């Protein structure tokens, strides 16, 4: 009997081809797989259909570049308590918390069914974001510090509850959900492709290219559309440009949080021409409206290519000069080194992805393991660091900027301007399952859809890398001074809206 | 020391000398103009992802528009987005551009509350509340204070506490989960206080309008002083809008 099927990134599969297992076999298969360091769970969710819930688990095999897909069926509104995946492997914790919160699935041995985002459609009536009981430790020596949801800076809302021993952080609990806009539900309610494309654009405004590329890849594959070389080149360049822009901005923000004004201003102003290049290209500084499923309204013409070349010619000398100077200042290194450390064991246990995984020595990069766009046409080598501290996260940004500039320069040089492909986007295939993975600047972005018998999406699931990585931040700040929390937070730069959806 | 001076020298001049007249590089989808040319109006209305285009009379509501430009791509002779970034309005109706109109959007001085003119002419301290914003408007509001746009030179600043603020700037469609914190923040601002809605999501809900996860009742309770459209708002749109609000004299 087949227990699972193996698919590739962006490969649609008929729903009927996905094997249905008993819950016990399903649990055993996936938790056993998760023990392999080259396998991690990209998505695990429940789809309520009539009187039952069908569970789907997608395990990415990073060595083979495939995704192992299996499913199980349990009754909806079941009072039975199920043994949890999380008890066997902590990385599943967010997915089971989501299912408990939204679908009311009960678990017998889940370590902490902490609410994930207090969604509009919740199975946990009476649980609201206002009355959430934070984890407490009774002690005369300890004190609590509550920060948020509204923060001092111009940033998104989230609550941080610290339990401190003097100036030291003993425990940090992060509570999110303030940004919940019901996006997954809106994907089903909005009926045109353009509306869904624009929804994808607004999941996280700093990862526009990452999320729209995932959406476009998913929709095009579902419609049997093969994007032309020009489309792929434009999207690959846009992805790398987004990485450069945000990494530069983050270096500025890290400098701000250690009160290094020069670095803050210089990296801040260096970001401006990068995002203005998006403006020149598509009329929006964050790349909104650049990526549309099935077409490219803003072809990669010679004027854009020249703009990119001129951008980097001016950017590089000033960027490296500033970075080199920053690296020579002991007062800066003292703040960055050994601050906010995530160990490799922690990263692996919590299912960390993207840049956070890579700075702790864990090799996770969708561009390398499950290539999409043009990433299999050149040898991409992920940048790995081993210390997992703020300094590693600073270094990796600088090195990824260098790498991305190289990729864009090569692509600009190699891509010949061709007319857009004449193929029209057809209609999505019915009763299908599809998974689309991209590597945004934060890490792996996952979009997944199941279509009904008319080809309309019956469920649409979105996963931002932040979903996994917020727990790493909570662990990283333990035993650090509370005054170092801002640089820890900034060096992670996780998304609130991407988590809350 | 010498390397620091070198760095300073290499930055050159970064600030924009006149933020009211500067031209945005490349393509910019600012104030739309609808020509009187005949077109398939039913299709034009259908194309808009957020229902910002009305058929009778033909008009675009910048408070609902996400500036995707799809109407212009489909009907280039009918709809044109100009590079005019001064699109803030003191009234909701001021954001609606009817067919045939090609004149600047203004914050009408006679409609600005007297207290605003009296107290905030010299400077303005604002508290920002992101209530479901996707971090694009927040980003651009931060950029408004960077060395390029340098909003601080006009005395306009974001402050850390509502108690130090003259008003609040709301971004995002206002989620249910942020409704209570938003109210708390507003209550903590001393009188007289102003409300600015920044971005299409805040003004109308944008692409999220009608979601069951939103609670926009806050906006039914209090008057809004300034609407700044955009997806996200451009720093130049924001700074010019706020300057019009506090510097306009009758």
Characteristic terms for this protein:
heterodimer, A: 501 residues, alpha+beta, Beta Polymerase, domain 2, Cytochrome-c3 Hydrogenase, chain B, 2 domains, 5-stranded mixed beta sheet, 4-stranded antiparallel beta sheet, 16 helices, 14 strands, 41% helix, globular, B: 250 residues, alpha/beta, Rossmann fold, 5-stranded parallel beta sheet, 9 helices, 28% helix
CATH level-4 homologous superfamily of the largest domain in chain A: Cytochrome-c3 Hydrogenase, chain B
- What is the CATH class of the domain at 109-247 in chain B? Alpha Beta
What is the second-level CATH architecture of the largest domain in chain A?
A: Orthogonal Bundle
User: What is the H/E string of chain B?
Assistant: HEHEEHEEHEHEEHEHHEH
* General form of chain A: globular
**How many structural domains can be distinguished in the coordinates of chain A?**
2
Unreliable residue stretches of chain B: none
**Fraction in helix of chain A:** 40-55%
Name the assembly state.
Answer: heterodimer
Q: What is the count of helical runs of chain A?
A: 16
The end-to-end span of chain A amounts to 38 Å
Structural class of chain A: alpha+beta
CATH topology (level 3) name of the largest domain in chain A: Cytochrome-c3 Hydrogenase, chain B
Specify the number of helices of chain B.
Answer: 9
Written description of the protein model:
The complex is a heterodimer of chains A (501) and B (250). In chain A, a hairpin with a 4-residue loop joins β5 and β6. Chain A folds into two domains: 103 residues, NADH:ubiquinone oxidoreductase Nqo5 subunit (Beta Polymerase, domain 2), CATH 3.30.460; 318 residues, Cytochrome-c3 Hydrogenase, chain B (Orthogonal Bundle). Chain A is of the alpha+beta class and 501 residues long. Chain A contains 16 helices and 14 strands. The mean pLDDT of chain A is 92. Chain B is an alpha/beta fold. Chain B has a domain of 139 residues: Rossmann fold. In chain B, 28% of the residues lie in helices and 15% in strands. In chain B, the strands form three sheets. Chain B has a five-stranded parallel sheet. A three-stranded antiparallel sheet of chain B has the order 2-3-5. In chain B, α6 links the parallel β8 and β9. The longest helix of chain B is centred in the last third of the chain and has 13 residues. At the A-B interface, α3, α4, α7 and α8 of A face α1, β6, α5 and α6 of B.
């Amino acid at each position: 009997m087949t227990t699972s099927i193996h698919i590739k990134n962006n490969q649609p599969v008929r729903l009927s081809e996905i094997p249905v297992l008993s819950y016990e076999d399903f649990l055993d298969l996936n938790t056993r797989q998760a023990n392999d360091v080259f396998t991690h769970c990209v998505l695990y969710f429940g789809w309520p259909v009539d009187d039952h819930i069908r569970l789907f688990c997608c395990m990415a095999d990073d060595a083979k570049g495939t995704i192992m897909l299996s499913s199980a069926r349990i009754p909806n509104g079941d009072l039975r308590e199920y043994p949890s995946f999380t008890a066997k492997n902590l990385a599943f914790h967010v997915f089971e918390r989501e299912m408990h919160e939204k679908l009311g699935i009960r678990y017998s041995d889940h370590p902490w069914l902490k609410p994930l985002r207090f969604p509009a459609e919740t199975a946990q009536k009476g649980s609201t974001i206002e009355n959430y009981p934070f984890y407490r430790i009774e002690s005369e020596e300890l004190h609590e510090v509550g920060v948020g949801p509204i923060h001092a800076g111009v940033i998104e809302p989230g609550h941080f509850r610290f339990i401190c021993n003097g100036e030291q952080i003993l425990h940090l609990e992060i509570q999110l959900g303030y940004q919940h806009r019901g996006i997954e539900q809106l994907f089903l309610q909005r009926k045109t492709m353009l509306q869904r494309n624009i929804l994808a654009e607004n999941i996280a405004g700093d990862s526009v290219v990452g999320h729209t590329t995932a959406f476009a890849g998913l929709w095009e594959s579902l419609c049997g559309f093969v994007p032309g070389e020009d489309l792929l080149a434009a999207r690959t360049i846009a992805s790398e440009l987004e990485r450069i822009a945000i990494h530069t901005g983050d270096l500025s923000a890290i400098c701000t949080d250690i009160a290094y004004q020069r670095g803050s201003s210089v990296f801040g102003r260096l970001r401006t021409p990068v995002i203005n290049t998006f403006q020149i290209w598509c009329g929006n500084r964050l790349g909104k409206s650049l990526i549309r499923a099935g077409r490219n309204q803003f072809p990669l013409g010679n004027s854009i290519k020249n703009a990119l070349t001129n951008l980097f010619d001016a950017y590089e000398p000033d960027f490296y000069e500033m970075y080199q100077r920053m690296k020579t200042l002991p007062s800066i290194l003292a703040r960055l080194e050994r601050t906010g450390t995530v160990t490799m064991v922690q990263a692996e246990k919590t299912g960390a992805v993207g840049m956070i995984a890579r700075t702790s020595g864990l090799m996770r990069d969708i561009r390398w393991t499950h290539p999409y766009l043009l990433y299999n046409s050149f040898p991409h080598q992920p940048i790995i660091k081993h210390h997992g501290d703020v300094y590693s996260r600073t270094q990796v940004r600088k090195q990824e900027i260098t790498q991305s500039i190289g990729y864009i320069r090569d692509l600009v040089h190699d891509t010949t301007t061709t007319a857009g492909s004449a193929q029209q986007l057809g209609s999505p295939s019915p009763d299908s399952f599809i998974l689309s993975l991209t590597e945004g600047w934060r890490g792996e972005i996952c979009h997944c859809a199941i279509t009904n018998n008319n080809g309309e999406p019956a469920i649409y699931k979105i996963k931002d890398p932040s979903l996994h990585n917020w727990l790493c931040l909570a662990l990283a700040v333990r035993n650090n001074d509370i005054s170092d929390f801002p640089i820890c937070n900034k060096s992670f730069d996780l998304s609130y809206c991407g988590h809350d959806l | 020391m010498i390397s620091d001076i070198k760095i300073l020298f290499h930055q050159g001049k970064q600030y924009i000398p006149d933020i009211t007249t500067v031209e945005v590089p490349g393509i910019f989808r600012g104030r739309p103009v609808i020509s009187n040319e005949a077109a398939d109006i039913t299709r034009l209305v259908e194309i808009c992802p957020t229902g910002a285009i009305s058929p009778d009379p033909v008009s675009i509501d910048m408070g609902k528009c996400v500036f995707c430009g799809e109407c212009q791509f489909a009907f280039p002779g009918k709809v044109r987005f100009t590079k005019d970034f001064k699109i803030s309005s003191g009234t909701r109706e001021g954001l609606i551009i009817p067919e045939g109109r090609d004149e600047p959007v203004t914050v009408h001085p006679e409609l600005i509350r007297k207290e605003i003119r009296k107290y905030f002419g010299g400077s303005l301290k604002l508290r920002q509340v992101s209530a479901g914003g996707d971090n694009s408007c927040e980003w651009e509001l931060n950029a408004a204070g960077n060395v390029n746009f340098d909003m601080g030179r006009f005395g306009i600043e974001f402050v850390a506490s509502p108690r130090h603020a003259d008003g609040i700037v709301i971004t995002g469609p206002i989620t249910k989960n942020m409704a209570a914190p938003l109210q708390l923040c507003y209550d903590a601002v001393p009188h007289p206080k102003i409300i600015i809605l920044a971005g299409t999501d805040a003004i109308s809900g944008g692409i999220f309008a009608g979601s069951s996860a939103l609670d926009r009742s806050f906006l039914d309770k209090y008057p809004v002083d300034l609407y700044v459209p955009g997806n996200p708002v451009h720093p130049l749109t924001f700074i010019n809008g706020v300057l019009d609000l506090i510097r306009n004299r009758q």
